[in-house]
Amino acid sequence: MVFLKKWVLNIVSLSLFVLLIEILIPSGRIKKVVNMVTGFILVIALINPVLKLLKMDIDLEEFQIESGNFINSKEISINSDVLKEEQIKLMTGVYREKIIDQLEYLAKKNNKVKDVKADVIINEDYNSENYGEVERVYLYLATDYEENTIKPILSIKKIKIGKIGDSEEENQEETSSDKIEAEIEEELKEKIHELFKIQKENIIISSLK
Question: pTM for this one?
Answer without folding.
Answer: 0.50
